[in-house]
């Protein structure tokens, strides 16, 4: 029966990728409908696991492609959090230029749209690159980025004619940084944002608002030019790209999840942008720690695959994967929590900390854990659970705030806790299912 097994190995090779053992191959075969009876009748082997072993030995091997974590990749991922806050030095100048209320409207609108739009852009590009269609990926980033910028500019003009430049700059940063991060150009983002940061600091020290605004505009222009450049470097693709509607359908659930996340967080944080300092910057530990959250989510995936090699039974794999998940979640909470403690200590030192501010910081620390679990669920077919749980919590958050004003911080903290527990309960069931790691 060697010939049929060779044929099966060639057929399932694209689905199993760089399989590390028979257990992973068995998960793929079972997901494709193979049974013990089929293994006996069609391949002369006693069960699916014996068939998986035969297929595993026939799979093509790629030598010299270790998945070991590298220091450079870790630094890149950890840098993502600090990169997200680079536009903030310019915000005081924008506040002075537009006024507090107008700026908040523009910031919330642009951030909310840019959040999920950038997610959709990157997902489509990653899927195209994963199929070896680098040129198509670059074209899709250019096209979708341009559409996003035009749509946000038009929407901002309708909200307030004075807002369009600020919203264009805000979403321009999100779109351009999305592109540069996709192409592993995090260092470019840091360098190109120097004019904005320098202008913002100069404004804070010497009250030179125009310098901050011009520096911010220069940085955004440079970043957009850089993103246009890197998306055009790939050679023409050897085959035709999938149709865009199909790619958009695949990306839609993740984009919906991003939109719900933006709605949940901004529904509370937008109310405190111009409030007391401790409330206004309570989100800082989460933003600075998002790179670490992303890093640990990737490490979880790598270590879970490694467990497929070391675990000798499904029961052992489920147990080990669960404790791995708990450990990585704890690591995320500790990292974001330490950033929160530093912020609380600084605010307390200057007498700027209130009880509400401390609770809001705590809520964002928990939200870091929620986002980590969300990354894991997104990767391992848990999107439906994510959308249902997050939709319910968001609706409850909005309704309670509507009928019980003044309790926004407590409601937000409760919502973050419910999300953390809800996502964890889903993963308690799904994290140990071998088929999800195929």
Describe this structure in words.
The chain is mostly helical and 438 residues long. It folds into three domains: 57 residues, no CATH class; 166 residues, no CATH class; 151 residues, no CATH class. Helix 7 runs antiparallel to helix 13, helix 9 crosses helix 12 and helix 13 packs parallel to helix 18. The radius of gyration is 24 Å and the shape is globular. It comes from Kibdelosporangium banguiense. Keywords: Membrane, Transmembrane, Transmembrane helix. This is DUF2157 domain-containing protein.
**Series of H and E elements:** HHHHHHHHHHHHHHHHHHH
Mean pLDDT: 88
Helix/strand class: mainly alpha
Rg (CA only): 24 Å
State the distance separating the first and last CA atoms: 25 Å
Counted by DSSP, the helix tally is 19
Reported for the largest beta sheet, the result is: none
Low-pLDDT stretches: 61-69
How many domain units?
3
Shape: globular
Determine the strand fraction and express it as a percent band.
Answer: under 5%
| Helical proportion, percent range | over 70%
How many E-type strands? 0
Protein name: DUF2157 domain-containing protein
Transmembrane segments: 107-128, 140-157, 163-181, 188-206, 212-234, 246-266, 272-293, 329-352, 358-378, 385-404, 410-431
Keywords: Membrane, Transmembrane, Transmembrane helix
Topology:
Blueprint: H1 2-16, H2 22-31, H3 36-43, H4 48-58, H5 71-84, H6 91-98, H7 100-130, H8 134-159, H9 164-182, H10 186-192, H11 194-206, H12 209-230, H13 244-269, H14 277-280, H15 284-310, H16 314-349, H17 355-379, H18 383-403, H19 408-430
Helix pairs in contact: 1-4, 2-4, 3-4, 5-10, 5-15, 6-7, 6-12, 7-8, 7-9, 7-13, 8-9, 9-12, 11-12, 13-18, 15-16, 15-17, 16-17, 17-19, 18-19
């Amino acid at each position: 029966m060697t010939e049929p097994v060779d044929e099966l190995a060639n057929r399932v090779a694209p689905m199993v990728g760089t399989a590390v053992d028979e257990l992973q191959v068995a998960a793929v075969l079972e997901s494709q409908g193979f049974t013990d009876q089929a293994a006996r009748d069609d391949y002369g082997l006693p069960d699916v696991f014996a068939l998986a072993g035969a297929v595993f030995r026939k799979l093509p091997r790629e030598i010299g492609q270790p998945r070991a974590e590298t220091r450079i990749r870790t630094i890149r991922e950890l840098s993502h959090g600090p990169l997200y806050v680079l536009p903030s030095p310019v915000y005081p100048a924008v506040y002075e230029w537009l006024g507090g209320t107008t700026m908040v409207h523009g910031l919330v609108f642009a951030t909310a749209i840019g959040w999920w739009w950038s997610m959709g852009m990157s997902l489509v590009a990653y899927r195209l690159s994963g199929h070896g269609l680098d040129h198509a990926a670059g074209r899709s980033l250019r096209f979708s980025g341009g559409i996003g910028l035009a749509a946000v500019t038009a929407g901002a003009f309708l909200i307030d004619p004075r807002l369009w430049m600020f919203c264009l700059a805000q979403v321009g940063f999100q779109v351009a940084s999305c592109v540069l991060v996709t192409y592993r150009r995090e260092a470019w983002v840091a360098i190109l944002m120097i004019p904005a940061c320098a202008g913002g600091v100069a404004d804070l020290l010497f009250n030179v608002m125009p310098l901050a605004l011009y520096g911010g505009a220069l940085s955004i222009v440079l970043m957009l030019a850089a993103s246009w450049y890197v998306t055009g470097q790939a050679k023409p693709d050897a085959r035709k790209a999938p149709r865009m509607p199909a790619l958009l359908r695949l990306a839609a659930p993740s984009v919906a999840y991003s939109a719900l996340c933006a709605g949940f967080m901004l529904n509370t944080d937008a109310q405190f942008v111009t409030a007391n300092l401790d409330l206004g910057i309570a989100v800082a530990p989460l933003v600075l720690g998002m790179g670490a959250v992303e890093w640990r989510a990737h490490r979880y995936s790598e270590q879970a695959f490694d467990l497929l090699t070391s675990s000798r039974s499904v029961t052992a794999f489920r147990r080990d994967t669960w404790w791995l998940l708990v450990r990585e979640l704890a690591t995320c909470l500790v990292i974001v929590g330490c950033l929160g403690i530093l912020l609380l200590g600084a605010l307390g030192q200057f007498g700027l900390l209130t009880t509400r501010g401390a609770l809001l910081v705590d809520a964002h620390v928990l939200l870091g854990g929620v986002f980590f679990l969300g990354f894991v669920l997104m990767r391992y077919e848990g999107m439906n659970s994510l959308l249902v749980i997050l939709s319910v919590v968001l609706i409850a958050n909005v309704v309670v705030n509507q009928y019980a004003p003044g309790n926004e911080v407590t409601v937000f903290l409760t919502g973050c806790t419910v999300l953390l527990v809800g996502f964890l309960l889903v993963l308690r069931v799904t994290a140990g299912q071998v088929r999800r790691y195929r």
